[in-house]
Amino acid sequence: MPHIVFNQRINLNDFLNEFNPIFQKEPILIKIQTVFVDKYCLTALLPTVVISESHQEFLIEISTRQEKTTIRLYPGTDPEKTDGVKTAMALLAKQIINSHPDYEVTKTNLSDYIQLVMKN
User: Which domain, by its residues, includes 73?
Assistant: First the structure.
C-alpha cells in the first residue's frame, strides 16, 4: 500500500487553510480540489481524480498522531495503484514539504515519485 510518513504532526486546521488545490493536466490528469477534516483534527480526506488509461476517483487520507503524520489511500476506496495514483500522493507530499521545509519524510515506498515531483 503506498504511504508517506512525516516526522512531525501536521496541524490539520492549518493544512486546511494553507491547502492549494492540485490540478495537473499532463502527462496524467490529477485533480485534488478540496479537503475534509474530522472534528477532532486527526484525519483529513481529500477526494482525488486521476485519469490516465482509466478514470479513478478515490480518497487520500492524512492521519496525524503524536509525533508523525501519514499520507495513504483511504481504506474504504481501493484504486488501482497506478503511476497517477502514486503521483497524486507525491504531489500532496510536495505541498506539505513546501509549506513546512522542516518536516522530513521518515518512511515511504514512494520516494521515486516524491523526487520526481520535487524537481518540477
Answer: 3-119
> What are φ and ψ of residue 105, in 5° steps?
-80, 120
Strand partners, 64: 69
**Count of H helices and E strands in the chain?**
3, 8
> How would you classify residue 41: left for phi > 0, otherwise alpha for psi between -120 and 50, otherwise beta?
left
pLDDT in tens, 5-53: 999 999 999 999 999 999 999 999 999 999 999 999 999 999 999 999 8
Give the number of domains in the chain: 1
What distance in Å separates the CA atoms of residue 33 and residue 19, rounded to the nearest whole number?
Answer: 9
Instruction: Enter the pTM of the model.
Output: 0.95
